[in-house]
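step 3/5: co-fold with adenosine monophosphate
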Amino acid sequence: MNTPEFITSIAAMQEASKLAKKEGTVGLVPTMGALHAGHISLIKAARAACDVVVVSIFVNPTQFGPNEDYERYPRTLDADLKLLEQERVDFVFGPEASEMYPAGNGGTFVDVPGIGDRLDGISRPGHFRGVATVVAKLFHITSPDMAFFGQKDAAQVAVLRAMVRDLNFPLQLVVCPTVREPDGLAMSSRNRHLTSNERTQSLALYRALSQAHDEVHRGIRDTRELRNRMMRTMQNEPLVRTEYVEVVHPETLLPIEDVSEGALLAIAARIGGTRLIDNILLPPPTRNDLCE
Ligand code: AMP
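step 4/5: write tokens
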């Protein structure tokens, strides 16, 4: 057990990172808190790969639309900090929104056009602009050598890869596999909002993706056929309102017609008041893209 140092000021975090970099490599795990086993898998990967581990906990207002769940997003800081003690995290960076955005919405933003306007970028306009901006800021504040993200948010990964490339951030982006509940539901901080009925029906996302995965292994390559089948599985559950079912190129997020060269199968749906996303990558990414 080791109590991480909790830092709320940008200046103090920058100073701590500068000192940490003299000790060795710095790994950053950005989160919005309400930590679960998915987050912990990223933290373990960072702990294994880096000398100093920084976890940020910040519910980023700029990535939420005006009618989205910013206020309702779960905030469980005390429980999060307890969990992090067990993971030998060195620093937890938990700034206030006013510290991160002194100019409010009138400040400088990072836009990743094209990629940032696809998948969740369509149903959540401005979402990836907020994500790219906060992650760029966190990179400047913590100067990580490696930054860890989950495959669960596949479109986010594509946006951030493009940002790291285009803005020459000197760091390695590490993508870790999606951690699931025993029945297959992808872990998410929002799962706690599901009623028991909704929880049962939320399995439609994983079921649709697993079936599509099996169909590809049985030789189906045509994405229209795969999409139709996934859509039918989603429609079987009355509480599930599908937002998108897409088969796209994993880096550009553009639709593809055939999955032979690999593909990202991605789904978003609303179940009651909760929005869930899930995806699978076909075939799996190359070894050096993945953490162990
Ligand atoms: P969030 O707190 O939801 O913003 O997520 C913080 C990081 O944890 C992001 O890189 C997510 O992709 C990752 N993450 C969230 N859920 C999972 C999961 N079930 N498996 C793996 N990574 C996840």
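step 5/5: annotate
Confidence is low (pLDDT under 50) at residues 284-290.
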